[in-house]
C-alpha cells in the first residue's frame, strides 16, 4: 500500500495560487514600488532641506548608500524567509521519503517472511500479477518476476483446470458484493508436483473504477494430506486397508438402491476363513495378521474395479458385486475359493501356511430385497458351507413368494 500524499497546499504552506513565478513577480513589484517612492519623495525632501549644491550632492551620495543598505536588508530578510521555508519544506520532504523507505523496507521484510505468497493482480482471466512477494518461489517454484505481467507463466495456468471456473465464479461474487473471498484449490508447481493452497483476498477499487485483487496464498498440502488420512481412517480397516463395516454398509445401501432403480441384479459374497484360530494358536497373532492382509490383497486383485471388498471384523470379509446374477456370483465365489486354497500364505518366518475359505452367496432380488435380508441370507449360506465341510461355496435359499389368501 502506498502512503497517502499530503495535499499540495498543506505540504508547502502556500496556497496553490502562490506559485514561484507569482511569488517572484510580487517581490519584484514591491521592490519597484518601494524604489519609485523612495527616489521620488527622497529627492524632493533633500532638495527642500539642502539648497546648497555641494551639500545636495553629498546628501544624494549618502542617500544612494542608504538606499543600497535598506534594499540589501529587505532583500536579505526576504531571501532568509524564503530560504528558511524552502529548507523546512526540503526537510519535511526528506523525512517523508525516509519514512516511506522505512515503511517499504518493513513491508518488504514482512511480505518476504510470510508463510505463503502475497500478491496483487488484475481481475482478469489470467490473474495477471502486478506484485508477488518472495514466498512465490517456495510455493510455486517460479521466481516472482516469472509471474509478474505473465512474463513466463500466468498464475491462472498453474491452477487445476477443474477448479478455475469455480474459483473465478466465487471471486466474482465476492467482488460484486464487496466482501473478501476464501478459496481452496490445487496448483501445479514448476517441478510438476501438485500442491493444495488456501487463498484469502478481496477486491480493491481504484479511482478510475478498475478493480484489482489483493490477498495471500498459503500451502495447505500437509493439512489436506492429514484430512485424507483421517477420512481413510474413518472408512478403512486399519489392518487390511479394506472398507470397514460402517463404510461397506453405506456402499451396499447405494449399490442396492441402484440395482432396485434400474432393475438389475446384485450379488453379495460372505467369506469366512476355515480354522483361522489354529493359525493364531500355532504361529501367533502377527502371523494371523499377515494372513489377513495377504488374503485381502488376493480378494482385491481378483475382483472387478466396480466391486467393493470390506472387512466386517475378525476373519469375515464381504464383497458386493454390482450387475452380477446368480451364475456369475457362483463362478466368482468359486474362483476366489480356489485361488485362496491353492496358494499357501508365506509368513515372515519363512514358513507358509495353507488356508481355505467358506463362501456364502446371496443375489438381489432372488435371495432378498433389502440390505438386512441379503446380509442374513449370505451369512446363513456361509454357515451352510461350513456345515458342508468347509472350503466350499453355498448359495442362499430363495425367498418364498407371499401368497394372498382367498
From TrEMBL:
Superkingdom of the organism of origin: Bacteria
PROSITE patterns per UniProt: GGDEF, PAC, PAS
InterPro entries xrefs: DGC-Regulatory_Protein, GGDEF_dom, Nucleotide_cyclase, PAS, PAS-assoc_C, PAS-like_dom_sf, PAS_fold_3, Rev_trsase/Diguanyl_cyclase
Keywords attached to this entry: Membrane, Transmembrane, Transmembrane helix
Transmembrane domains' residue ranges: 21-41, 61-83
NCBIfam families named in the record: GGDEF, sensory_box
Protein name in the entry: Diguanylate cyclase
Annotated source species: Marinobacter nauticus (Marinobacter hydrocarbonoclasticus)
Lineage of source species: Bacteria, Pseudomonadati, Pseudomonadota, Gammaproteobacteria, Pseudomonadales
Amino acid at each position: 500500500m502506498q502512503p497517502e500524499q499530503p495535499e499540495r497546499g498543506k505540504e508547502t504552506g502556500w496556497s496553490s495560487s502562490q506559485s514561484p513565478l507569482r511569488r517572484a513577480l510580487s517581490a519584484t513589484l514591491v521592490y519597484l514600488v518601494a524604489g519609485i517612492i523612495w527616489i521620488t519623495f527622497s529627492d524632493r525632501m533633500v532638495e527642500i532641506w539642502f539648497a546648497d549644491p555641494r551639500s545636495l550632492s553629498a546628501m544624494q551620495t549618502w542617500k544612494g548608500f542608504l538606499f543600497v543598505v535598506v534594499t540589501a536588508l529587505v532583500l536579505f530578510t526576504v531571501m532568509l524567509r524564503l530560504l528558511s521555508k524552502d529548507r523546512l519544506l526540503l526537510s519535511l520532504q526528506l523525512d517523508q521519503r525516509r519514512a516511506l523507505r522505512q515503511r517499504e523496507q518493513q513491508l518488504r521484510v514482512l511480505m518476504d517472511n510470510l508463510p505463503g505468497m502475497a500478491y496483487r493482480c488484475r481481475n482478469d482471466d489470467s490473474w495477471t500479477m502486478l506484485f508477488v512477494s518472495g514466498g512465490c518461489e517456495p510455493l510455486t517454484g517460479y521466481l516472482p518476476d516469472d509471474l509478474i505481467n505473465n512474463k513466463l507463466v500466468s498464475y491462472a495456468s498453474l491452477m487445476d483446470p477443474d477448479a478455475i471456473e469455480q474459483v473465478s465464479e466465487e471471486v466474482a461474487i465476492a467482488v460484486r458484493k464487496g466482501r473478501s473471498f476464501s478459496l481452496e484449490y490445487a496448483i501445479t508447481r514448476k517441478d510438476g508436483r501438485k500442491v493444495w493452497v488456501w487463498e484469502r483476498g478481496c477486491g480493491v477499487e481504484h479511482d478510475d473504477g478498475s478493480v484489482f485483487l489483493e490477498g495471500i496464498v498459503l500451502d495447505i498440502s500437509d493439512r489436506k494430506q492429514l484430512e485424507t488420512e483421517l477420512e481413510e481412517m474413518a472408512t478403512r480397516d486399519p489392518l487390511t486397508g479394506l472398507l470397514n463395516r460402517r463404510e461397506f454398509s453405506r456402499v451396499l445401501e447405494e449399490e442396492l438402491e441402484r440395482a432396485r432403480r434400474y432393475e438389475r441384479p446384485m450379488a453379495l459374497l460372505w467369506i469366512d476363513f476355515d480354522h483361522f484360530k489354529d493359525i493364531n494358536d500355532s504361529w501367533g497373532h502377527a502371523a494371523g495378521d499377515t494372513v489377513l492382509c495377504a488374503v485381502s490383497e488376493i480378494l482385491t486383485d481378483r475382483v472387478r474395479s466396480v466391486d467393493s471388498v470390506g472387512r466386517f471384523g475378525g476373519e469375515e470379509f464381504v464383497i458386493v458385486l454390482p450387475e452380477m446374477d446368480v451364475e456369475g456370483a457362483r463362478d466368482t465365489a468359486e474362483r476366489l475359493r480356489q485361488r485362496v486354497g491353492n496358494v499357501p500364505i508365506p509368513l515372515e518366518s519363512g514358513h507358509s501356511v495353507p488356508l481355505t475359505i467358506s463362501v456364502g452367496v446371496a443375489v438381489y432380488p432372488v435371495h432378498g430385497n433389502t440390505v438386512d435380508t441379503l446380509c442374513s441370507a449370505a451369512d446363513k449360506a456361509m454357515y451352510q458351507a461350513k456345515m458342508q465341510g468347509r472350503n466350499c461355496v453355498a448359495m442362499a435359499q430363495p425367498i418364498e413368494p407371499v401368497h394372498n389368501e382367498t
